[in-house]
Amino acid sequence: MVVQTFTAKDYKTSVHNTWCPGCGDFAILNSVQNALVELQVPPHMVAVVSGIGCSGKSPHYINAYGFHTLHGRALPSATGVKLANPKLTVVAVGGDGDGFGIGAGYFINTGRRNVDMTYLVFDNQVYGLTKGQASPTMNKGDKAKGMAEAAVQDSVNPLALAISAGYTFVARGYALQPRSLAQIIAEAIRHRGTSFVDIMQTCPVYNDLHDKDWYGEKLDGRPRLYQLDDTDFDPVVHDPRDPEEIIAKKVQAIAKSYEWGARIPTGILYKLETSTYEDSMAAGRPRGMESVLDPNLTDRDLTRLIDALR
Ligand code: SF4
Ligand code: MG
User: Is 206 touching ligand 1 by the criterion CB < 6 Å?
Assistant: First the structure.
């Protein structure tokens, strides 16, 4: 039997890409495709689900099943895709405005479920598609070039939010470090449970505050960005049955997530191996859910399920 091996070109499409030249999204797209190469997931076993925004166009550029949904609705749609076909590798993608503004409620409640899927946020601190307004991750008082005035609201910390909400894999990556970003994304997809990766993304058109020079800057001889892998930071909960260790690792990760400025850590902040939503459903099997969890779902089963839910 010939073992098929997939290369990056197997995950690419010929759809014309409309991102601006120099956009950090290109590097993130390549990192996602390289992560899939590393994992050797066949394209027909991958589903990429997005919301609205520049990054929302990603499913068009990845050769896999794609679902470009409504603003802020990538996560509930991805949850539905995964529960309907648990064999698929499901990757939800979106921007910071889509995920932490319009989709904030879904962002929190997806963390509480721990469905086995991955959420990647292309975080550039602006609403790029609508010409650079401040998104929820823009710091209060900052003013990027598309904004009429400085941001008047405090920013949210998506990593701290994710850790509190229950995501079992939380990491930060940087678009322009594609090799380490691809590794983080591969680890996120490999993780059994909901993974969240906040990806610092350059938007050369609207974010002139945090551009590639700012991220690449050295201060006091030390690069602004550093990798947690190069330190003795340990994000892993070693005993998932020990609530004290879980809380200690969450506190450690949240403290690390607030390191932003002269030094910014990248890599995995928190990782917990525990039961997933699918495990809980399989154990409890509420009425009507049996066929959703059955990988051999047929049209007749689906009809029965819809009737049961009426
Ligand atoms: Fe990229 Fe910004 Fe252009 Fe959107 S507006 S495609 S985020 S450079
Ligand atoms: Mg954005």
Answer: yes
